[in-house]
Amino acid sequence: MSVQIIDSKVFSAIGAKIIDASYRNTVNINHISCCFSFKRPLTEKKVLVFINRLRILNDLSYCSKYKEPIELLKPVKIAPFGNEPNTYQFLKWLHCIDYNIEICTIEHSGRKISMLDKVCMKFLKRLIRDTEHTIIDSLPEYDKAKWSEY
Question: Model pTM?
Answer without folding.
Answer: 0.93
